[in-house]
């Protein structure tokens, strides 16, 4: 459910684009992203650094699109965001010897360090490839095709890649059972 919540602004962007065009869709995405953060804050839920960063990116690039009446900036946003994800993963690993993928998933999966590193490089490569693919689609196809790709293409490719990673983890890792379930304290 949380995953779908993350895609809420993209879905609204797509719907608004179909009715009103790129500038209104951009404004809707900005408002939806702000509303998303406000909803989390009102529920007293944590807002991750990546969520704040994503909000900043949509406000800046969406704001430039609205201010300059140039859709190129909103088209550039997915590239910047995906490159930022890759850079954060790589800088943490190379500069600080911290595997952020392991930090996120390490409580649920046990794997050898080399496997965690392979997973980190796979995700980093995926984010770089998605950044490049976004630029290619934005430059080679119509705005309408890019908008469809932004929702369906990105989402589809993400699901396929995540599923492939899940299968890979199942071959090379071991799920860590919740001790509360083993003791009869969990659902």
Secondary-structure blueprint of this entry?
Blueprint: H1 2-6, H2 8-20, H3 22-42, H4 49-68, H5 72-96, H6 100-105, E1 109-110, H7 113-140, H8 143-172, E2 174-175, H9 179-182
Antiparallel strand pairs: 1-2
Helix pairs in contact: 2-3, 2-8, 3-4, 4-5, 5-7, 7-8
Beta strands, count: 2
Largest sheet: 2 strands, antiparallel
The oligomeric state of the chains shown is single chain
Radius of gyration, whole Å? 19 Å
Note the run of SSEs as H and E: HHHHHHEHHEH
Structural class: mainly alpha
- How many H/I helices? 9
Mean pLDDT: 92
CA-to-CA gap between the ends? 18 Å
Helical content stands at over 70%
Strand order of the largest sheet: 1-2
Provide a descriptive summary of the structure in words.
With 187 residues, the chain is mainly alpha-helical. It contains 9 helices and 2 strands; from the N terminus they run ααααααβααβα. Strands 1-2 form a two-stranded antiparallel sheet. Helix 3 (22-42) runs antiparallel to helix 4. It is globular, with a radius of gyration of 19 Å. The model is unreliable at 179-186 (pLDDT under 50).
